[in-house]
Amino acid sequence: MRDWDREFATIAGQPPTQFYPGSTRRISRRPVRASLAIRSPEEARYDDVPDRWDAKPQVKPYAGGYREFFGIGDLAKALKRDAVTMRKWESSGVIPRATFVISGKTANGNRRLYTREQIEAIVRIAEEEGLFDGDPRGIRITDTHFTERVKEAFEQLRQKEAAA
Fold first, then answer.
1. What angle do CA 140, 146, 149 make, to 5 degrees?
2. pLDDT tens digits, residue range 15-28?
3. In 3-state terms, what secondary structure has residue 69?
4. Which helix (H) or strand (E) holds 70?
5. pLDDT digits over 31-84, tens only?
6. Rg (Cα) of the chain, in Å, rounded?
7. CA 94 from centroid of its chain's CA atoms
8. 68 and 123 in contact (C-beta within 8 Å)?
9. Residue 129's CB: how many other CB atoms inside 10 A?
């Protein structure tokens, strides 16, 4: 029986396809990614980090212009938590409900959106209250003033936006 794959590869000038021993599964010839060089924080630049929470904002029309919004996953990434934790915090009142909500396109529900200012305020307060210190499971958020301060920050941002 003729090996058509091998013959076509030879005609095309490509190396012949190889299979794992005793299998019909082809051996992948994709290039292997080289390991990334470890850089110090001074060498790492803001633009070089693709997994920052603000790497992919959602730009939506708002008040006659456009504004960037971020989802609850971005908020979770900024706080070094899971999105499930953020939803739980929101439902239990640890953080205020999202100011901007758009209806979801799927049956999963609505999308919570936060502005850059809101997320930066939450992160700043979390740093000041020590929520990033040590193991996140060992910190009791009820022992801090995080909730009150975040609610105040959201209210200040709401008033600032209403005045503008």
1. 165
2. 666 766 777 777 66
3. strand
4. strand 65-70
5. 555 545 555 555 555 445 567 888 888 888 888 888 899 999 999 999 888 899
6. 25
7. 20
8. no
9. 18
